Amino acid sequence: MPVSGAIAVARLGTVDYAAALRLQEALVAARREDSIGDTLLLLEHPHVFTLGRGADEHFLLARRPDVPVLELSRGEMTTE
Predict the structure, then answer these.
(1) What one-character-per-residue DSSP string does the chain give?
(2) Averaged in consecutive runs of 10 residues, what is the pLDDT profile of the chain (80 residues)?
(3) pTM of the predicted structure, to 2 decimals
């Protein structure tokens, strides 16, 4: 596979899921405007349940009160 340019790597450590999502959205917008180059985020976040489009909390079989549930506008719920 040919290499066509540099990629920026950001090592962020542990980042709250919602904060990481906001950062991703901002980077996507900047990339679309060609304000930044390709960027790779290396991070982890505390446990979180995410519900994409079409998902519902009743799909969570082992809900834990110490783990937040976030509803997202991306992804899908599948039953397969």
Answers:
(1) ----S--EEEEEEE--HHHHHHHHHHHHHHHHTTSS--EEEEEE----EEEEET--GGG-TT--TTS-EEEEEEEE----
(2) 79 94 95 95 90 73 78 56
(3) 0.70
